Amino acid sequence: DKPISEVMTTDVVTVSPDADVDELLDLLTGDSRDINRLPVVDERGRIVGIVARQDLLRALRDERRA
Question: Between 20 and 30 A from 61 (CA), which of 3, 6, 31, 51?
Fold first, then answer.
């Protein structure tokens, strides 16, 4: 029965649409924070997508198989 404001993350780590795979890997595997999803924001700060850890793992798997 808590409002979402009591459980949400306020210091959100985001990436731009042109972020490279290495940047995403660094953020998702870093030791300082446990990040599972990265909101993708445009130059105006609007969310245009989300990259989940699993999305990146699948992309890397598919690349290795190709």
Answer: 31
Beta-carbon contacts of residue 43 (< 8 Å; ≥ 6 apart): 16
Q: Residues 6 or more apart from 56 whose CB is under 8 A from it?
A: 21, 24, 25, 28
- Encoded amino acid at 24, one letter: L
Residue 56's alpha-carbon distances to 5, 6, 18, 46, 66, in angstroms, are 28, 29, 15, 21, 15
For residue range 6-39, what is the model confidence (pLDDT) as tens digits?
A: 999 899 999 999 999 999 999 999 988 899 999 9
Asked whether 40 and 47 are in contact (CB, 8 A), the reply is yes
pTM: 0.83
- Give the three-class secondary structure for 15: strand
